[in-house]
Amino acid sequence: MSDLLPALESLKVLIVEDDENVRIGCQQALQLEGIPTEAVGSADLARKMIGPGFPGIVVTDIRLPGMDGMELLRHLHDLDSDLPVVLMTGHGDVAMAVQAMKLGAHDFIEKPFSPDYLVGVVRRALERRHLVLEVQSLRARLNTRDNLEARLIGTSASIEAVRSLISELGDTSADVLIHGETGTGKELVARCLHDVSPNRKGNFVAINCGGLPESLFESEIFGHEAGAFTGAAKKRIGKIEHANGGTLFLDEIESMPIPMQIKLLRVLQERVVERLGSNTAIPVNCRVIAATKADLRELSDQGQFRADLYYRLNVVTLPLPPLRERREDIALLFEHFAVQAAARHGRPVPPASRERNRQMMAYHWPGNVRELRNVADRCVLGIDSGFPPFAPSQQANASRPLAETVEAFERALITEALRRNDNSLARTSEDLQVAKTTLHDKIRKYGLND
Fold this sequence. Notes:
Layout: H1 5-8, E1 12-16, H2 20-32, E2 37-40, H3 43-49, E3 56-61, H4 69-79, E4 85-89, H5 94-102, E5 107-110, H6 115-151, H7 157-169, E6 176-179, H8 186-195, E7 204-208, H9 214-222, E8 223-224, E9 236-237, H10 239-242, E10 247-251, H11 258-270, E11 272-273, E12 282-283, E13 287-292, H12 296-301, H13 307-313, E14 316-319, H14 330-345, H15 354-362, H16 368-381, H17 402-420, H18 425-432, H19 436-445
Parallel strand pairs: 1-2, 1-3, 3-4, 4-5, 6-13, 6-14, 7-10, 10-13
Antiparallel strand pairs: 8-9, 11-12
Helix pairs in contact: 2-6, 11-13, 14-16, 15-17, 17-18
């Protein structure tokens, strides 16, 4: 078997042949070589099985009842011009097959043919299909990565891990639990997950579970029929129903009242919702992304959060790093937010300042990225003096050991200097006023040359 076959094992061959004996013979010859195969007797049946990005190739007879092989070829190439189609021909159809090759057929096989010859042609077509799909997948991943790098800014290993996990979840509809401190960008990450998912064309519906009064919570989430309660003058579509075909984002899920947790669990398990005042179950198909700053497992152990809902939400956990653990991203983030703020307020972008960067990287950022955005706004408006991280009383960070704080600061300072000097060791050592050998040792120590 071909050395590439293990990489092709997910691809299959669809045989379209109305002669049952030939159809079975082709199928058996391929299956004996471990090549996944399906077979149908008409082009109409084949059309129902093939869509864009079909994971395989098509081997079809030219003469078929109804739509013939030539028409099927044209239809398939209108659908996916890169799909390999191999034609099987009788002796009198060779000229037609040659014409089909000019129209884009991958190859043709003249009947009668040996099983080995069929297998050889099919393997070459599968290898070509695999290459095309790999290139398409690579392009999609690159587009996703570029998009994510523009939205989730930073070069640190921790933020790169977040982007990587979002990319891996991109073609799935798996529910996700985002965990991170206040201000780390949980809703931004949720929107990124939505935008790279199969549900991207649907609605992104965000609910802050801590911002709704309990008396309104059920009506907001599940909706209600007219007359369901006093003041319900007309029907209202709930947030879950509005998210059908899209994404439902539940922020501060730890704040959801226990009775609502029970009802939400039923929705997640059965994927149906009932409006208040109605007994009709409405099917919903949406991705659920929940976000929390709390340890839901610990809350469930304490009886403050339902354990069954926690396990249902926790299909995939996406942890977001606090800003103090990605200090090398601070200068880049500040620059991004300052440009945005300058455009918004009609002010110039503040000039680069080494002292400002030093103060920002030494600060502990309890408000995380959200606080950094506010700092950028104040700098653009010229009212930053006296506010953290520039107020002298805010420079100490008693929550971390001194050695750990110094190392984090040093690592971030070197990272920013390398970026500023295009990774030139000589220019960076001059910039930081440190010997090149010393700088090289520190770069190796902090893993900055990976």
